[in-house]
Structure to design on (673 residues):
């Protein structure tokens, strides 16, 4: 098991390096000149040239990449003399649009995204697995039909549509809640909850749909297993059979998907954050795309990639704990 | 066989049907038999003849939302079919235990075998100490012939071979010393060499524990070896119930002859090869009127005869205690049949 984890971590690092190369090169290949974007349309060629040198865009792409990679570990200094400034490690570059280090920009926006992701994740796991389990235990009855319908509707409805619909009806039409305006939970907890409750619910209910289906089908499949019949034949209580036999098996694919979904969400819930005006990483990324703020894009892409890769490793390790067949054969 | 004592298991007019999209499937249609302490009853018949459904009914394992079960099944005086869930749970594993066909899928892959054997013990012995449980499990693993059980008790099912897994399943079944063991084709999924070992194990444990075994099998070789009584099922009915010697020497139902004739044996080539029963098993949704075997029966009396109009009931035939559900068992067929199995 230990060797398995070490090997898995090693490959995770290799993968992240590959992602960083690919991401950086992709942005370097874009036809836009990052230096030209540092000042407005009416910009003197000298200024552009000076900025290009200051930000290191005059160097060959590979050297730029090396500087970027080095910056992550030791921080990075830009320019010389009076105009010099630095971004401390881990530096993901400097945003000329917002005149700030990318790392600190991410530091400001990430908590919002994390709060959104964690709250929604907890809600959707409870709703998804709960409704799925109820459906499986009442197969063919109205509960099951309701749950299956819920799953079908939830899977097919896009967040931007439902998000706007909910926002419109709850905030504008019925005026149950004020228009969401994000505040940090430590500054103003009630404002935080007021701003988060709708995005949490929208994200949770829509994502729960696929978990409902996964739980229902997983449990029904498990209930047909011979070993569940043997469990019944042993005289075990239904509760025990459901927990040790049925759920145990149904949970394995759920853990896999949940890990990846959660990681994806930590990389920024672009649509949800935009619809509910949450100042998170997703909204920052989309704004960076619009503004051609390349360093921010590279930074958020890297952060999202880290989450996905780490989640993959965690899921793999969790797999080993959940399924002894994986543990022993590895 | 102790005919005069109370049977440990009494199945009375059992009917099991399943509602499907195509109609109601009558998987078991009026089956009655008694089983006495210490005997081995084999149930034979083609796939779909209702053997397994009948066996699962004894522990009420059929899915209650799709299956309709009627009749009575008495275990230790309790009618399994009308008892409460909690009463049935008390019988499962302690009075009646079951061995399934495929040991590869019968064990929970997520727990060690030791834990799974222990689970069966603990549920009927609440309050047993950890130490006691461990000793009982270990003793049982030794009894079913698991080598180095101290080490293997903490291993998972996938670390065991098929034969070893079936031994674990047997250990689970016998840990509470049940009166009745239902074995649903326990050797079908195993290698031929392992089959004999598992059967030997079951038979020696039967002697030790004094239990009744209800063995469902396709394998007439197994029947000849282990059975005292044989029940032949066809289309949800018992068509013949005989002592094993009587069945092999003087079967009283044309279907039994067919089964016996379809066994491959050395030297078949000289005698014209394997005999098959023509036709295929009937649909259990729309059974033939009259005897359900008549469409495939070489001795059927044809249009308008009793075979085509009256459903035969199981009755005593001959002097050796055989029961047969063939209209013609007494007269014509007996004289034809007793010459051999070829019809």
């Amino acid at each position: 098991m230990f060797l398995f984890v070490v090997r898995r971590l090693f490959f995770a690092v290799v993968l992240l390096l590959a992602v960083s190369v690919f991401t950086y090169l992709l942005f370097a290949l874009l036809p836009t000149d990052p230096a030209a974007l540092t000042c407005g349309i009416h910009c003197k060629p000298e200024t552009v040239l000076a900025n290009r040198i200051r930000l290191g865009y005059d160097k060959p792409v590979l050297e730029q990449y090396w500087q970027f990679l080095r910056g992550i570990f030791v921080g990075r200094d830009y320019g010389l003399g009076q105009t010099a400034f630095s971004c401390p490690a881990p530096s993901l570059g400097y945003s000329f649009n917002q005149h700030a280090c990318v790392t600190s920009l991410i530091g400001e926006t990430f908590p919002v995204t994390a709060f959104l992701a964690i709250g929604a994740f907890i809600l959707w796991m409870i709703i998804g697995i709960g409704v799925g389990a109820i459906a499986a235990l009442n197969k063919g009855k109205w509960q099951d039909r309701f749950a299956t319908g819920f799953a079908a509707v939830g899977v097919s409805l896009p967040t931007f549509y439902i998000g706007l619909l909910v926002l419109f009806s709850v905030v504008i039409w019925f005026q149950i809640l004020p228009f969401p305006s994000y505040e940090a939970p430590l500054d103003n907890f009630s404002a935080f909850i007021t701003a988060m409750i709708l995005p949490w619910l929208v994200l949770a209910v829509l994502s729960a749909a696929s978990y409902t289906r996964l739980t229902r089908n997983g449990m029904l499949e498990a209930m047909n297993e011979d070993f569940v019949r043997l469990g019944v034949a042993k005289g075990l209580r239904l509760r025990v059979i459901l927990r040790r036999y049925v759920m145990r098996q149904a949970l394995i694919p759920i853990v896999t998907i949940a890990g990846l979904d959660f990681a994806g969400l930590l990389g920024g819930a672009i649509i949800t954050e935009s619809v509910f005006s949450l100042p998170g990483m997703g909204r920052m990324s989309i704004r960076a795309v619009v503004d051609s703020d390349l360093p921010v894009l590279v930074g958020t892409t890297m952060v999202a990639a880290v989450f996905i890769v780490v989640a993959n490793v965690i899921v793999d390790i969790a797999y080993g704990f959940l399924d002894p067949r994986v543990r022993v054969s590895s | 066989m102790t005919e005069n004592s109370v049977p440990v298991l009494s199945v009375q007019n059992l009917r099991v049907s399943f509602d499907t999209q195509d109609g109601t499937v009558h998987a078991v249609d009026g089956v009655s038999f008694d089983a006495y302490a210490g005997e081995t009853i084999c149930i034979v018949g083609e796939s779909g003849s209702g053997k397994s459904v009948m066996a699962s009914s004894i522990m009420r394992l059929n899915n209650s939302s799709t299956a309709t079960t009627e009749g009575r099944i008495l275990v230790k005086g309790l009618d399994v079919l009308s008892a409460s869930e909690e009463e049935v749970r008390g019988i499962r594993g302690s009075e009646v235990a079951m061995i399934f066909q495929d040991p590869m899928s019968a064990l929970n892959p997520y727990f060690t075998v030791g834990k799974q054997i222990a689970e069966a013990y603990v549920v009927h012995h609440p309050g047993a100490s950890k130490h006691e449980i461990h000793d009982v499990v270990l003793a049982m693993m030794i009894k079913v012939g698991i080598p180095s059980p101290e080490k293997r008790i903490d291993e998972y099912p996938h670390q065991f071979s098929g034969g070893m897994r079936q031994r674990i399943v047997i250990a689970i079944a016998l840990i509470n010393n049940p009166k009745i063991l239902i074995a649903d084709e326990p050797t079908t999924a195993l290698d031929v060499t392992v089959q004999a070992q598992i059967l030997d194990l079951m038979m020696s444990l039967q002697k030790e524990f004094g239990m009744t075994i209800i063995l469902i099998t396709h394998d007439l070789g197994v029947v000849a070896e282990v059975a005292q009584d044989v029940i032949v099922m066809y289309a949800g009915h018992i068509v013949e119930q005989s002592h094993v010697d009587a069945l092999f020497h003087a079967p009283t139902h044309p279907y039994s002859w067919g089964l016996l004739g379809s066994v491959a044996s050395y030297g078949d080539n000289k005698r014209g090869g394997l005999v098959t029963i023509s036709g295929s098993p009937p649909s259990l949704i729309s059974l033939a009127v009259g005897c359900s075997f008549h469409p495939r029966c070489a001795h059927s009396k044809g249009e308008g005869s009793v075979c085509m109009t009256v459903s035969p009931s199981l009755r005593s035939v001959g002097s050796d205690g055989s029961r047969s559900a063939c209209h013609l068992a007494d007269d014509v067929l007996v004289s034809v049949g007793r010459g051999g199995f070829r019809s």
Observations:
- The longest strand of chain A covers residues 76-78.
- The CA atoms of residues 222 and 246 of chain A lie 5 Å apart.
- The radius of gyration of chain A is 24 Å.
